[in-house]
Design goal:
With 298 residues, this protein is of the alpha/beta class. It has two domains: 106 residues, Helicase, Ruva Protein, domain 3, CATH 1.10.8; 165 residues, P-loop containing nucleotide triphosphate hydrolases (Rossmann fold), CATH 3.40.50. It has 13 helices and seven strands. A five-stranded parallel sheet has the order 2-3-6-1-7, with helices on both faces. Helix 2 crosses helix 3. The longest helix has 17 residues. The protein starts with a helix and ends in a 21-residue tail after the last helix. Bound molecules: adenosine-5'-triphosphate and magnesium ion (MG).
Length: 298
């Protein structure tokens, strides 16, 4: 909507996990390097955790691009609210297994054959499960069993990456999953950005959208965006997108603090220190009642 006004080639703050906008903060860089290392060194189980909106799916999309570029076969399960039957069906579909996708036995035979064939060619195969914190226990158990597929010479035949919110770690701590937990050899975690990372992140997205040196967000405003978003990329995107939209509506090329105030009100955003900043809170919020300050919308 505002792209032409600001001279962007595309929207800088899209909410989709687009790898072409990937900003490599030191922790994102390290986590991606770990995932790639885990796959190549046939580590078996790898877990990627992070709070809501910190970039797990975006990172998996980057990994997917990498695997494609290396001709490494993979299955990507992005909907984790599935039954075991659907789980095997999705694996068979993604890996293009030549068997009845509805028969678990046939899928397992065909998968084993593919893994061995890939292994003989010096390649590995990857299973990526996003939102793994939502997986049912019986699906997790099937995943554990898939992790047992190995060959004395080729090592683990299937590299399994489980990505999810911190609940995933808590789930894996459950006594009935101790066998799976024991097999996890690599763990990566994403946390929210520090101030400098938030600033670089915003610059990076603006630059990728076509504004090489940004002229829309003054330094003071960037600090406020960091504070209010608590350094969470998805919230940063939502705030910045709304700021640009507001500035466009007012035909101004520079975003200002009063616009941020309006945007945060509209988003019903909450952040530490909000009440002191807004001198008693936003309209409709009662400073004496913390419950009246609602959390950011998903
Ligand atoms: N390192 C990054 N570089 C570029 N964009 C990012 C980065 N991290 C997160 N984002 C952006 O933030 C938003 C949320 O990212 P993403 O969906 O990957 O988070 P998530 O951790 O998978 O969230 P959820 O827990 O809800 O699944 C997306 O718009 C994504 O493009
Ligand atoms: Mg996600």
């Amino acid at each position: 909507m505002y792209n032409a006004f600001f001279g962007f080639r595309e929207s800088p703050f899209n909410l989709s996990p687009d790898p072409s906008f990937f900003y490599r903060s030191p922790q994102h860089e390290e986590a991606l390097a770990n995932l790639i290392y885990g796959v190549h060194s046939r580590k078996g189980f790898i877990v990627l955790t992070g709070e809501v909106g910190t970039g797990k799916t975006t990172m998996l999309e980057c990994l997917r691009d990498y695997l494609d570029s290396q001709y490494i076969e993979f299955a990507f399960i992005f909907n984790s609210r599935i039954t075991t039957d659907q789980f095997f069906e999705m694996i068979a579909y993604d890996l293009g297994l030549n068997c009845s996708h509805k028969s678990k036995t046939e899928v397992l035979f065909a998968l084993n054959a593919l893994l061995i064939e890939q292994g003989q060619q010096g390649r590995t195969t990857v299973l990526i499960v996003d939102e793994a914190h939502n997986l049912e226990w019986d699906v997790l158990e099937e995943i554990r069993l898939l992790g047992n597929l190995e060959n004395p010479k080729m090592g683990k035949l299937l590299q399994i990456i489980l990505a999810g919110q911190p609940e995933l770690d808590r789930k894996l701590d459950a006594p009935n999953l101790r066998q799976l937990k024991q097999r996890i050899v690599l763990r990566c975690n994403l946390s929210s950005f520090q101030l400098q990372e938030t600033i670089e992140y915003i610059h990076s997205r603006l630059s990728k959208a076509g504004m090489a040196s940004q002229t829309v967000f003054p330094e003071e405003l960037l600090r406020e965006v960091h504070q209010r978003s608590q350094g969470i990329p998805r919230v940063i995107n939502a705030i910045c997108d709304n700021l640009l939209l507001t500035a466009f509506a007012l035909e101004q090329r520079l975003c200002a603090l009063d616009m941020l105030e309006e945007v945060c009100n509209d988003m019903r955003l909450d952040w530490p220190g909000k009440r002191s900043k807004t001198r008693g809170g936003l309209p409709g919020a009662d400073p004496a009642n913390p419950a009246s300050f609602v959390s950011p919308r998903e």
